[in-house]
Design goal:
This protein is α/β, with parallel strands linked by helices. Helices cover about 45% and strands about 10% of the residues. The protein has 18 helices and twelve strands. It has a nine-stranded mixed β-sheet with strand order 1-2-6-5-4-3-7-8-9, sandwiched between helices. The protein has a three-stranded antiparallel β-sheet with strand order 10-12-11. α9 crosses α10 and α16 crosses α17.
Length: about 375
């Protein structure tokens, strides 16, 4: 698309009061954003559904839009802008009810990203939730699935890291301008995401992460994806908004069960009761996706992990490692399952922690860390 046309799309998108529905009406009536920006107040008032306030806002603000500054900021931060008419615009997103007409992109969007799954959950995630999110995202990415999330703390961060650890693709959907890093502590993670995937936003450069932006962001997370996996979420959670958006968009919804006494699992359990597919392994997700798009695997991931770990463990460490899973387990239960006395289990767990295979939690609880190596990708 010519630069001048792009500028018109960006400028119209930046005018206060021009949301998605108004943008659609304007382009449909006038034929292009450029024509809409040049329309008279009288012509604007002829469009059914446009309030006098919106018409006035267009006339008052169209000459004030800082388009030169916006274009300079886009270029300075290594971003690009695509419109819903561009070939690069994500096909899954274009199919939803209210797709953004303008999309800011940092990194690279690929046609293969249409084979994607959203992985979302609470910011206040438990060790169990983060471990599960990272492991499932690793397995998804290893099979050629692009992992989509929102780069928030907790489950989102774990999902992005899991995909990156498999040398896979991941997309971060932002609730702010792409020149604003939020949360700030994820600055390094954002660089890694952009280097092997993309960060996208419908918000102009400089837009701050306001509370009202995130429901809009959530519909893009689900809209980009064939399905949404909720790993851990309380009853009131943005992740459940994403799941609702997925249902409205006709996409799959998956949920990971958690501990029944944990508030962080109440939302996922509610989703399962309402018909979301219960997920215990990556295969529960993959069997709902088009199989022809999956990368072939010479061996099952768990078999690779088993064989690789067995080689580096002693006769006492191996049964202890086998007794530990991604769900937290108490040291006494490990001792019973491994059929070893507590003092030998304690010694074995110390060595397993040093080898990065298990993690100790509060209350003498332990959980397994994934050791699956990154898969080779073409």
């Amino acid at each position: 698309m010519p630069t001048e046309d792009i500028r018109h799309w960006i400028a119209l998108n930046m005018i206060p009061g021009v949301g998605g529905a108004t943008f659609r009406r304007l382009v449909k009536f006038f034929g292009s954003p450029g024509n809409a920006l040049n329309a008279s107040l009288n012509d604007l008032s002829r469009i059914r559904g446009l309030t006098p306030a919106v018409c006035e806002s267009i006339v008052q603000h169209r000459a004030r839009v800082p388009i030169e500054q916006e274009m300079d900021t886009v270029e300075r931060h290594g971003c690009k802008v695509i419109t819903i008419q561009d070939e690069l615009y994500p096909a899954n997103l274009k199919a939803i009810y209210d797709p953004p007409h303008v999309l800011y992109v940092k990194g690279e969007l690929l046609p293969g990203d249409s084979f994607s799954v959203a992985v979302v959950g609470t910011r206040s995630a438990s060790s169990y939730g983060k471990t599960v999110a990272e492991k499932l995202s690793n397995h998804l990415a290893a099979r050629g699935v692009t992992v989509v999330s929102g780069m928030a703390y907790g489950i989102d961060t774990a999902a992005h890291k899991g995909a990156l650890s498999a040398s896979g693709r991941t997309i971060a959907v932002m609730g702010n301008g792409l020149d604003v890093v939020y949360p700030s502590r994820n600055a390094r993670l954002l660089e890694e995401i952009v280097s092997s995937g993309a960060a996208i936003s419908e918000f102009p450069m400089g837009a701050q992460p306001l509370r009202g932006n995130f429901p809009r962001r959530n519909r893009l997370i689900s809209g980009l994806s064939l399905g949404t996996l909720v790993v851990e979420a309380p009853e009131r959670s943005g992740a459940l908004i994403t799941a609702d958006c997925a249902l409205e968009q006709g996409r799959e919804v998956f949920a990971v069960p958690g501990q029944i006494l944990s508030e962080m699992s109440s939302g996922t359990h509610s989703l399962i009761k309402q018909g979301a597919k219960l997920v215990e392994s990556v295969e529960d997700i993959l069997e709902e996706l088009p199989s022809h798009a999956l990368l072939p695997m010479e061996e099952e991931d768990l078999e690779i992990e088993e064989k690789r770990v067995e080689l580096q463990l002693s006769e006492e460490e191996y049964p202890v490692w086998k007794a530990v899973s991604v769900s937290p387990i108490h040291i006494d239960d490990i001792s019973r399952q491994a059929d070893l006395p507590p003092y030998k289990v304690s010694a074995a767990l110390v060595m397993l922690e040093l080898k990065g295979l298990v993690q100790q939690l509060a209350g003498k609880m332990f959980t397994r860390k994934s050791s699956i190596p990154a898969s080779k990708r073409s």
